[in-house]
């Protein structure tokens, strides 16, 4: 007897399989247990394969958008929930296979061993997918960090360009009477020309060094 809060497809499939079996009278409780567990375990493979397909699709897009990385986090949470379900089943099958107290399991040892192998494969697939999500998350953080560094570098360069201009404006903004340049006829134009030359030279130099524009 088994108890389920909701309808269990695996149990129904096993029931149909046993009803059509020609050896129904030879079926024992362990055989039924094996079929139920085997059907339950097999139901997890399509879920893991679907997760793998999504991760492969996101890897092709390089996981550079916030929307994709949010979905990757959701997949990671799903993997954690699956691990909490599959890991106890794996440990239970291991104890059943290696237990000396359950004598009847020896007759179906190879059947339960096969289920245990499937659970080990599922565990490896989940671990591999979790590693992929971790790599995608780290790549996203690295991309965002590089973008932030580029932005900060560009802003720093722009600030550096305006520093000499601010100095010139500050000097000629002082209210002293004996400043010869203030009385030059072309002082204003010359000062603007010098400031423009400074800007052009600094932009050319920073661009040559690759420090100016965001890549």
Q: What structural keywords apply?
A:
215 residues; mainly alpha; Methane Monooxygenase Hydroxylase, Chain G, domain 1; 75% helix; 0% strand; rod-shaped
Topology, pairings included?
Blueprint: H1 9-19, H2 29-42, H3 44-60, H4 66-98, H5 109-172, H6 187-209
Which blocks of ≥5 consecutive residues have pLDDT under 50?
A: none
What is the CATH topology descriptor of the largest domain?
Methane Monooxygenase Hydroxylase, Chain G, domain 1
Q: Could you give the count of β-strands? A: 0
Task: Count up the domains.
Answer: 2
Distance N terminus to C terminus? 65 Å
- The total of helices stands at 6
**CATH superfamily of the largest domain, please?**
Magnesium transport protein CorA, transmembrane region
Main sheet characteristics: none
Shape: rod-shaped
Sketch the topology as an H/E string, one letter per element.
Answer: HHHHHH
The average pLDDT score comes to 79
Class from helix and strand fractions: mainly alpha
CATH architecture of the largest domain: Up-down Bundle
In the CATH hierarchy, what is the class of the largest domain? Mainly Alpha
Strand content: under 5%
Written overview of the protein:
The protein has 215 residues and is an all-alpha fold. It folds into 2 domains: 9-146, Up-down Bundle (Methane Monooxygenase Hydroxylase, Chain G, domain 1), CATH 1.20.58; 150-209, Methane Monooxygenase Hydroxylase, Chain G, domain 1, CATH 1.20.58. Helix content is 75%, strand content 0%. It is built from 6 helices and no strands. Helix 1 (9-19) packs across helix 2, helix 2 packs parallel to helix 5 and helix 3 (44-60) runs parallel beside helix 5. The longest helix is centred in the middle third of the chain and has 64 residues, at 109-172. The radius of gyration is 35 Å and the shape is rod-shaped. The protein starts with 8 loop residues before the first helix and ends in a 6-residue tail after the last helix. The model has no long low-confidence stretch (mean pLDDT 79).
